[in-house]
Amino acid sequence: MRLLKFYKTAVGKKVVVAITGVVLILFLIAHMGGNLKVFAGPGVIDEYAMHLRTLLEPIFGWGGVLWIMRAVLLVCVLAHIVTVALLIYQNKRARPQKYHRHDLQASTLAARLMKFSGAVILVFIVLHILQFTTGTVQPAPVLFHEEDGHMMADVYLNLYAAFSMWWVSALYIFVMACICIHLYHGGWSFLQTFGADNQDRNKAFRVWAWVLSLGLFIGFSSVPFCFWTGILPPPTISGVEHAPASSTEGH
Amino acid sequence: MRVILHVWRQDGPDAKGGFERHELSNVEVDMSFLEMLDTLNEQLIVAGQDPVTFDSDCREGICGACSCVINGRPHGPGQKSTTCQIRMRAFRDGDEIWIEPFRSGTFPVVKDLMVDRTAFERIIEAGGYISTHSGPKPEPNASLVPHPIAEEAMDAAECIGCGACVAACPNAAAMLFTAAKVSHLGLLPQGQPERWKRAKSMVEQMDEEGFGACTNYAECQDVCPKGVSIRFIGRMNRDYMKASLCEPEVQIGPLKAH
Amino acid sequence: MLELDAKIPSGDIRDKWRNHLEHVKLVGPRNRPKYDIVVVGTGLAGAAAAASLAAQGYRVHVMCFQDSSRRAHSVAAQGGINAPKNYRNDGDGISRLFYDTQKGGDFRAREANVWRLAEVATGIIDQCTAQGVPFAREYGGQLANRSFGGVLVERTFYCRGQTGQQLMLGAYQALHQQVAAGNAIMYPRTEMQDVVNIDGRCRGVVYRCLQTGEIRSIAADAVVLASGGYGNVFFQSTNAFNCNVTAAWRAHKQGAGFANPCYVQIHPTCIPVSGDFQCKLTLMSESLRNDGRVWVPKKPGDTRSPDQIPENERYYYLEERYPSFGNLVPRDVAARNAKYVCDDGLGVGGKRQVYLDFADAIRDRGEKVIGERYGNLFDMYEEITTESPYKVPMRIFPAVHYCMGGLWVDYNLMTNIPGLYAIGEANFSDHGANRLGASSLMQCLADGYMILPQTINDSLHDIYMDKVTTEHPAFAQHEQSVREHIDGLMARRGSRSPMAIHKELGEVMWHHCGMARTAEGLNEAISKIDSLKEAFEHDMIVPGRADTTNQALERAGRLGDFLDLAHLMCRDALERDESCGCHFREEHQTDDGEVVRNDDEFANVTVWEWKGEGSPHEKNTETLSFDALPLMTRSYK
Q1: Distance between CA atoms of C114 and C86, rounded to whole angstroms?
Q2: Any chain B CB within 8 A of the CB of A104?
Q3: Under CATH, domain B118-245 is a member of which superfamily?
Q4: pTM for this structure?
């Protein structure tokens, strides 16, 4: 009841957006860490994908932890989006008559582009899952193999196949730029929303937002960039059983 | 100097408004913006036309009455100043100047450039005070306030309630106004007993009035004539979170918006 | 003739207020909600009184012409508020504040009121602190003080350069707490048009809603006027654009005596006039004289820039003429001396302005310290003049600031009409012929928090028995006459705007009834005012409609009252054939230009009685007695 009342106010909603945002940022950092394993060689990232599924297997079963994480992420994404939508509705109602001329001056470009960058990211998330998780959308054939009785996508192979196409890489990097500017504002904004900001810390928080957003951008974009430019070598496909490309069973 | 004015004219809250074009050729650079409007009005009156209605009172930047948006910026071109403090030397000869009222659903237009800001009043009534009666009170030095705390409280207390923060906010939020009062009183020892109730009721009243939500654009602090900082918004959020989630609940509903 | 019984309690001056409180009749808490009290004006005095009365349980109706009660012009007071706390251990105390105020007012104030003011002043600081007013604190956490003109102690409390604003917010918040509690009802954007007297007692007001033009009434058991001063009769003043005398003047027309209208304070440190488009002059706080030094070049018409003028060619006229008070002489003295040096052609750049120089203070204390003290004032000055006071001296000149005159009130702050009260700047009160700096906030809050809430019961205690409602025919009658008055204004289709006539009135008043007055000049002014009144009646134009917001109509209504008041001010100044405080008649001065009082004839309050449109006012006097502090010649040398 108290939580519901809290959520009813704009400040309460902001806090929800901030908390879910923080969870998603943490996820992105972890995700990026995983992605960067491609630089350690084809075997390592596939091993990492395996690890994710076997983590705490005796308790949660095969891929159990992964599913828990996915559930948490899904809840966060939904809460983030629904709450933002409610806030946008409230904001639209708060100013029924627009200005003839309204010069924004203090706000950052990132802040003004939040809705746009957020929408791009939403579309991307859907496509991204369909491409690499389920293999439904395939710019290049997605390859699976069987391991311990489970179908596993060939991570390195699939990355190579997709990002060798220039437009996939370019699109991916563009989306990463959107994430970057989304987080440049978000990374500072959640601290402000939580009230951690003050005049002494503000500069440091701005620097943090730069580091966070640029770090994620560079980290994520380096993978497609390196596949595209050929810095990362093509995979060796020896000793791998190929599943039919049309298979949608993946984890 | 000569200026071309596009002034918003609107007969009443429900009337349809529009811009009216006027040319003024006898403008002096030392004039304040409002004195320039006075000059326009004098011409209109002598011609038997309805003068432009706008709020103003102290004309020295402290009462918070004046309220136009000039060329897309509340209180016009200047840092830490109100419309009455803007001088015509901020414009160039031949400039076109667009003058609009503060626009927000919570600030209905009364007439022309004059708006109704009583929503702010109700936010204060929801808890922006320290409950006292008049009469004998304890010796003020009996409760010491460290210099930095007194200064911080004063930084927040400087708000003049003009509403420029709402006007500038792309979301028409009243966070800066509310946060200034919550912080001013919440920082001082006298304000502690009602601190949580105050933060909670004032935030709820803000929504009840129909103000927008903060997305940390920071446009508000840029146009604030008193330079009230958005760090107070963070402070209010913190107080509000604590009040809503941790402190014992106080039964007090929001006041009715009109 | 008016009946002027000041009702000063008997006994020693130290005991009067306490004794009085013991004998004031009371209203029980259960009966208080049965009383309606109207408060007109929401400045410090009005808001404080309304909040205090509502907190006691009375039903309080509060009106202001602004859109919010927080905007009253009390917000503009910069410097501070006095209280004899003696935190600095420099010999301050109630009797010292009493002495300073009485002497500062040049012995034209009512002694018992002044003592009471000094007595309750310390309680105001306690009250305001409890409300959360963020007074400046020292590093140890204790309240800080600074010094103001006309005194030799540090007793001024302050909140940066916004003391008035912060005190106002304290009162405003207290008032709106009561609005939320349902004890007070706000009427913003409302202008009082008339008071309604029934059977010799004030029983309500007629007001105009400034948004819809509706004329309505409120029936009440007491009416409190806290409508401020009339400095805008000079057109250019430091008052807010819309400050007016209408509420007080309409009450005066219904029989309330108007006391000492000629006492108008001219503030010495304002930004000089820069053009005839100006309707508002900006004050620079008196606190600047703590560190600023006032001077002019010794050579008339010297056009060198100030840093080119060597020390020995500068005339520090205040320091030279008043060695013990120096730059901190009272306002009337500082203003008059600025006028003298400009009359002698010593004004900076040949214009009517003098320097207020911070170079020495910045050299001694550093730019940072001075910036902390006056930063916001310096910024404000630079914004208006484009000159930085950190680099070049400020240029200043006196401007109309405060009115010591106002409605006559007795010790209970009630006018001669039972049930009608006047508080704050609206009454003639405690400042005599000149007010000291940081005393207006003190007086407004003393009246509002401390005095009126305790004295108003005295006239209220049994009148709820015969409650009057707005059904009473007197209300309809007054409403009708207000409507006719407004229709009369709307019917004017001449060629001059209300503002143009007002501007001309201001010039007449400034030249003839300003810092220095002569019999000849005052007579001339009276005839000019009469011809302006003609113009007002026959050559003014009021555009638009009366049933909507119409600021030209508001202005026209106020101008009519200013014209009548201006006439009375000149007559008062003419008949007060002496100099005292700010009232300076050139006929009565010493060789070096100091005021010469005539205590034998004029140790009194002049109270004017309205005798109807077109008939001259009738003069009444209240004789002042000086028992606690005998009359003396004031000197700041």
Answers
A1: 18
A2: yes
A3: Alpha-helical ferredoxin (1.10.1060.10)
A4: 0.94
